[in-house]
Design goal:
The structure is a single chain. This protein is α+β, with helices and mostly antiparallel strands. It is 27% helix and 16% strand. A hairpin with a 4-residue loop joins strand 3 and strand 4. It starts with 6 loop residues before the first helix and ends in a 38-residue tail after the last strand.
Amino acid sequence: MADTSDPAIRETIQDVRDDGTDTDWAAFGYKSKTVLGVHASGNTGHAGLMEVCTDDAVLFCLLRLIDGDQESRRVKFIGLTFVGEDVGGMQRGRVATHKGGFFRLCGQMNIEIQADNHAECSLPLLIKKLKVAGGADYDTGSNAGGYRSEAKSIRAKSLKAYQNREKFGNIEKVVYETSALPSSTPMDLAGRPTVASASEVQKNTKDNILDTEKFKNKAGVYKEGSTAPKSTFKMTRPGSISKKPKLKAKPSISEPVEEPIKEPEPEPE
């Protein structure tokens, strides 16, 4: 890893990244084989940077550009490793191991490239790479020649079409009633007209006396004043057994007794 302890390196990088300054490029080179320092900086854009990128130069460069499309213009940062065509192999080898650590100091960049000559880092090529890295490009296709927004005219046309369509509807103006309708009849939940007075209806809804007449000869018996039935029987299904039958005791099975084997009687002589 190269030595980047020089405070001027970080100050120059911050100067390029600061939108409040005019500095838009900086180049950093070798003071010795492993020590880096500030080579040059300026506010002349890509052209000024190319002036210090000579054929014998080994430079790590940070370039700031304004790029975008017709929708927006944004600041873009480019990391450039320039190794001139006259640079020897030993120096090229050191660049490969040092550029990663240096560009980490530069912060976030949109693209990072390496070039041996000006053709490989020309401004049109850098802009093309920025557009590819940026994704959507609203300057291509039918917008290449420019365009203007028609959002207002689209909204106006939509409103006019909706108003014309609304004329063919059959919905009249909504009229809200602020009192009871003159020809309406109060109904209960079953759809039957309510003919009782309001006080009687209220009495019925608050009456907690249970009518026991409708439960006569039914499955339950109730006491006067009670509000909940007390069941006096158990429901059984037809054909079901109300009591669990008792199982007969299984006869005990004794082990078989082996009969003694009789010895054969001797035959008479």
